Amino acid sequence: MAKTPSEYVTLVSSDGFEFVIRRQSAYVAGTIKRMLDPASEPQRAPYLRDVHQLIECSSGVVLEKVCEYLYYNEKHRNAKDVPDMDIPPELCLELLMAADYLNGGVPSSVFEQNGR
């Protein structure tokens, strides 16, 4: 009998910070969705896939903002006139690199507000 995936996943930053977020929100990022796909790595223990996913390229500060965006995206998915997210200018480059790694999880349009 196949194990039912947990409703939550834990994303771990390169510096060890852990963020527990809803699986559905994490699926906004294509890379995370593929990593959590049971068919992607059959050798991995299912409980590890359901609970943790290491995001090596992101510090805790950056991963926190990524998690915030994943929830923000889910909340405003079908909304019109969505307000801009508050993104500190000093994080823009690191967030852009994280977005690239996460396969478009954070579109570059969110950086336009800061002129980046």
Show the helix and strand layout.
Elements: E1 8-12, E2 18-22, H1 23-26, H2 30-36, H3 46-51, E3 52-54, H4 60-75, H5 92-101
Parallel strand pairs: 1-3
Antiparallel strand pairs: 1-2
Helix pairs in contact: 4-5
Report on the architecture of this protein.
This protein has helices spanning 23-26, 30-36, 46-51, 60-75, 92-101; strands at residues 8-12, 18-22, 52-54. It is α+β, with helices and mostly antiparallel strands and 116 residues long. It has a three-stranded mixed sheet with strand order 2-1-3. Helix 4 packs across helix 5 (92-101). Mean pLDDT is 76; it is low at 44-51 and 105-116.
Question: What gross morphology would you assign?
Answer: globular
Q: For the report, how would you describe the main beta sheet?
A: 3 strands, mixed
Poorly predicted runs: 44-51, 105-116
The helicity comes to 25-40%
What series of H and E elements makes up the topology?
Answer: EEHHHEHH
Q: What class would the helix/strand composition place it in?
A: alpha+beta
Radius of gyration: 15 Å
Please, what is the oligomeric state?
Answer: single chain
**What is the averaged pLDDT score?**
76
How much strand?
Answer: 5-15%
